[in-house]
Write a structure and sequence with these properties.
5-stranded mixed sheet; Rossmann fold; single chain; Hect, E3 ligase catalytic domain fold; 4-stranded mixed sheet; 4 domains; elongated; alpha/beta
Length: 543
C-alpha cells in the first residue's frame, strides 16, 4: 500500500533563538510615591517628612526605576479624596501617562473609603498603572490584587468608622460633663482663658453690646450691619463688610448670655463629614452659667422676643425703620409698609400704607399716614397715658413678679424633652430591630409612621413651650423697660422720642375713620384722631 503524500507548508520563524540577535532596549519604570498624614501635629509632620525622604531615596536608588515625584497631603483626612490635592494631582498625572508605578505605605494611607480606593485603582489599572501597598504587600496588577484590596479597604473603612465614633463619643462625654470649646478665631467677644473656658475680650464685647442695644432701639439688622461697616469695625472673621447673617447670629447666640447649647449640629456621615442641623436625632446639652456673660439674660430674652415680633414679615428684620411691623390696618389686619411717592423729583414723599390695600377684591379704606402725623399722634397718645402715670406704674409693678415666674413652664418643658428623648430612643430601637430580623414590612411601616408622628408631636410641644417661656421672659423685660421709662418721664412730652416709641409701643392700629389705637407694652390702649400734619421732627436712624 502506497504511503499518502502530505502537503506541508514551510513557515519561517519570526523569533530568532540566536543570542547574538539584536534586542529591544529595556525601558525604566516611571515611579512615584504618595505620602499623607491626617493631622497637623508635630509628631505627625515628622512622620510625614520621614515618608517623603524615604520614598525619594528608595526610588532614586533603584536603577530600574525613574523618579517622578513624591505627592503629598498634610493634615487631610483619608475618608474621602475630594479635598486631597496631592492625591488628585498624582492620579491625574498617572492617567496622563506620566507614571507607571505608585508606591504608598498602606491602603489606609491611600484612602479609608472602599469605594474611593477601588474606583481609583481600577481607573489606574485601565491605563496599566500599578499601585504597590507596602504594608499589605499588594501589587494591584497582580491577579489576587483586587480581591485583597477589597478586603483590606473594607477593614480600613471600618477602622475609620470606629475612630470617628470614638471621637464623637469623647466629644459627647465632654458635653455631658459641661465641657465645650468655641471657634475663638471667628467668635466675637471671647478668647480662650487659662482654665480653657471662654473669657471676655472687653474691646470686642463693647461691639456686641452695641449690636444688642441698636436692635432694641428699633434698628434693623441691615442698619446695624451698615453702621458697623461704616465705622470700619472688622467682622469676627476680620472682613471689612458685615453680612446681615453675622448680625442675626450674634443676636441669637445664647453664649452671649453666659449659657451654652451644645451639639446644635452633628456629623451625619463619617465618610463625607457633612454636618446636619440637629432636630433631635442626637442628644443636646444646655449648660446654664457656663462662662461670663456679655449680655444679661433679660436683655437677651427681650431681643429674642423682638425677633419673633418682627418675624411675621421676615423683611422687617432687614428694612431700616422703627415703624416696621408696628402699624396695622384695622380693616384687613395687614401691616403698613413704607412707600415712596415721586422718588425722582423734588416732590419726593415718604408715606405709610396698608401692604394689601390694592391686593384684595375690596380696596382697604384705611388712610395713608405721613411720618410726621404718626409722630404727632404718638406724642398725643403717650401724653394722655402719662396723665394717669402713677396708676400705670402700680399696675406694671404687679405684673412683673407674675411674668418672672416661669417655673411651671420650665417643668413642663423638662417633661416634654424627656418624653421626646424616650420616643426617639424607642424609634431607633425599632429601626435597628427591623434590620436584624425579617418583619412584615406593611406592619413595620404602619408602626413606624405612628411612632414618628408621636415624635413630631413631642417636638412641636417642646417648640411651643420654648416660645411661651421666651414670650413671657421677653414680656417681663419689656414691662421693666416701660417702668423705667415711665418713672423718668414728667407729666407730658413735647416732641417725638424714638427711645420711648421703641420701648413703649407694641402696635398702632389704623381705622378708616382716621382713628389711631395705640397699644402700649403694658396692654394699655389709647385712641387718638389723626392730627393735622406738622413739620417732621428729624431723628437719626443710624445711632
Amino acid at each position: 500500500m502506497a504511503t499518502p503524500v502530505r502537503n506541508v507548508q514551510k513557515i519561517e520563524s519570526r523569533n530568532s533563538l540566536n543570542p547574538a540577535a539584536p534586542t529591544v532596549e529595556h525601558q525604566k519604570r516611571r515611579v512615584a510615591a504618595y505620602a499623607r498624614v491626617s493631622t497637623d501635629s508635630d509628631e505627625q509632620l515628622s512622620s510625614y517628612e520621614a515618608q517623603v525622604d524615604f520614598y525619594t531615596r528608595h526610588i532614586q536608588s533603584n536603577p530600574e526605576w525613574e523618579f517622578v515625584n513624591v505627592y503629598t497631603d498634610e493634615g487631610i483626612s483619608g475618608t474621602n479624596t475630594k479635598k486631597r490635592e496631592g492625591f488628585n494631582r498624582m492620579v491625574a498625572d498617572a492617567l496622563d501617562g506620566r507614571i507607571d508605578l505608585i508606591l504608598t505605605k498602606s491602603i489606609s494611607r491611600f484612602a479609608r473609603n472602599t469605594v474611593d480606593t477601588l474606583t481609583t485603582v481600577r481607573k489606574l489599572k485601565e491605563k496599566n498603572v500599578e499601585v504597590y501597598f507596602e504594608k499589605e504587600n499588594i501589587y494591584t496588577l497582580d491577579a489576587k490584587g483586587e480581591m485583597m484590596i477589597t478586603i483590606m479597604s473594607s477593614l480600613a473603612q471600618e477602622e475609620s468608622r470606629s475612630i470617628s465614633e470614638n471621637v464623637t463619643w469623647g466629644k459627647r462625654r465632654s458635653m455631658e460633663e459641661g465641657k465645650f470649646s468655641l471657634a475663638y478665631k471667628c467668635f466675637l467677644g471671647y478668647e480662650k482663658g487659662e482654665d480653657g473656658l471662654p473669657q471676655i475680650v472687653e474691646e470686642e464685647a463693647r461691639i456686641v453690646r452695641k449690636i444688642y442695644q441698636m436692635f432694641l432701639d428699633g434698628k434693623t439688622v441691615r442698619t446695624i450691619a451698615d453702621y458697623l461697616t461704616g465705622q470700619g469695625i472688622p467682622t469676627p472673621r476680620g472682613k471689612e463688610k458685615w453680612p446681615v447673617s453675622t448680625i442675626i447670629s450674634i443676636l441669637t447666640n445664647e453664649k452671649y448670655k453666659g449659657d451654652a447649647l451644645l451639639q446644635k449640629t452633628y456629623t451625619a456621615d463619617f465618610l463625607t463629614k457633612k454636618s446636619k442641623k440637629n432636630h433631635g436625632e442626637v442628644p443636646q446639652y444646655y449648660i446654664k452659667d457656663s462662662h461670663p456673660a456679655i449680655i444679661d439674660p433679660a436683655t437677651f430674652d427681650l431681643v429674642q422676643q423682638e425677633m419673633e415680633r418682627r418675624r411675621p414679615n421676615r423683611r422687617q428684620l432687614h428694612k431700616s425703620s422703627p415703624f416696621n411691623a408696628k402699624i396695622i390696618c384695622g380693616q384687613c389686619g395687614s401691616y403698613y409698609g413704607r412707600k415712596v411717592w415721586h422718588s425722582n423729583s423734588k416732590y419726593r414723599k415718604q408715606i405709610w400704607r396698608c401692604n394689601r390695600k390694592y391686593e384684595a377684591e375690596t380696596v382697604c379704606d384705611t388712610p395713608n399716614i405721613d411720618v410726621s402725623i404718626l409722630e404727632a399722634a404718638f406724642v398725643k397718645a403717650f401724653s394722655q397715658m402719662l396723665s394717669d402715670k402713677e396708676q400705670h406704674i402700680v399696675r406694671l409693678e404687679k405684673m412683673l413678679p407674675i411674668l418672672a415666674n416661669v417655673s411651671d413652664l420650665e417643668k413642663q418643658l423638662d417633661e416634654a424633652q424627656n418624653r421626646h428623648a424616650e420616643l426617639m430612643s424607642a424609634l431607633r430601637r425599632y429601626m435597628e430591630e427591623n434590620t436584624r430580623q425579617i418583619q412584615n414590612q406593611a406592619e413595620y411601616n404602619r408602626r413606624f409612621s405612628e411612632q414618628d408622628a408621636e415624635c413630631k408631636r413631642a417636638e412641636e410641644q417642646i417648640t411651643q413651650l420654648k416660645e411661651e417661656i421666651l414670650a413671657q421672659s421677653g414680656k417681663k423685660e419689656q414691662i421693666s423697660r416701660c417702668l423705667e421709662e415711665l418713672r423718668k418721664c414728667v407729666d407730658t412730652i413735647e416732641e417725638f422720642d424714638l427711645g420711648l416709641w421703641n420701648s413703649m409701643v407694641e402696635s398702632v392700629t389704623v381705622y378708616a375713620d382716621k382713628r389711631l389705637v395705640f397699644l402700649f407694652r403694658d396692654e394699655t390702649k389709647v385712641t387718638v384722631q389723626m392730627p393735622i400734619p406738622q413739620k417732621k421732627v428729624p431723628y437719626n436712624n443710624a445711632e
